[in-house]
Design goal:
- With 283 residues, the chain is of the alpha/beta class.
- Helices cover 57% and strands 8% of the residues.
- It is built from 14 helices and five strands.
- It is flat.
- The protein starts with a helix and ends with a helix.
Amino acid sequence: MNDTLKLNIQTALKKYCDKKGSQNAAAHSLSGVSSATITQILNNNWELISPEMWQKVAAGIKFNVTNWVIVTTSVFIKSNAYMGDAKRNPDGIRAIVINASMGKSVALESFVNNNPNSYYIRCHRHLGVKHLLREMLKNMGKDSSGTAIEMLDNLVSYLERENQPLFIIDEVDKLKDEVLEMFIDIENKLHNRCGFVFFSTPYLKKRIELGVARNKRGFAELYSRMKKNFWDLNPSKKEFIRDAKDICQANGVDNEDTIIELTNKCDNDFRVLRDLIVAQKNK
């Protein structure tokens, strides 16, 4: 890792600390990164900071250490519009469905990095109520100790004092039923004071509608808070072809026939397209 890249990470880290409010808050939100390490990086005391720590800091603040060029795709534009509206008009939970590998995570992370009081959580199958609350508090740079009830009260208290806060919850379909129910309590306490956007594969729509049909506890109430609506963010065929061409050209693939070939090969998957572009450039 050269000094130019370190300087770029340092600049991004300073911006990250400013967004979180302090170096301590930033350290709270970064796993395995101490406030002392942040201070050393910002003060140019780099001698004792290992390459692994630089990588950990870069990953934590979502800094792109590769030469890959991020493109403003149709998904990027539409997701930013949805999240911006949810931030300005926090009236319930916005539920957005999109297939995997459509460039969603890049768009979400970019929005959070460029909008104050915006937070991004990516869920996984083993995330319980207490773990999710802890992640939400850490993401805000706040203390995450205490019982589940104490953390919930603290979370609500912090969000009530912020200007237009927004929580983006990604891969919601992986959450257990009792964790999904928790958002009923959160939204009850923060109605019209904090925006919530759920991102998921289309499976979430089926799961919620089936839960309502079977009268599962909490599902009708959660569905109501979603306004019984799921916005489909998937690009049309025409949008995908245009986005794929933009991604190819931005990352060094200009030949029209090659672009068509890679677009057809990737099977509507931007992650596969990226691998194909890298392989093409390495030929």
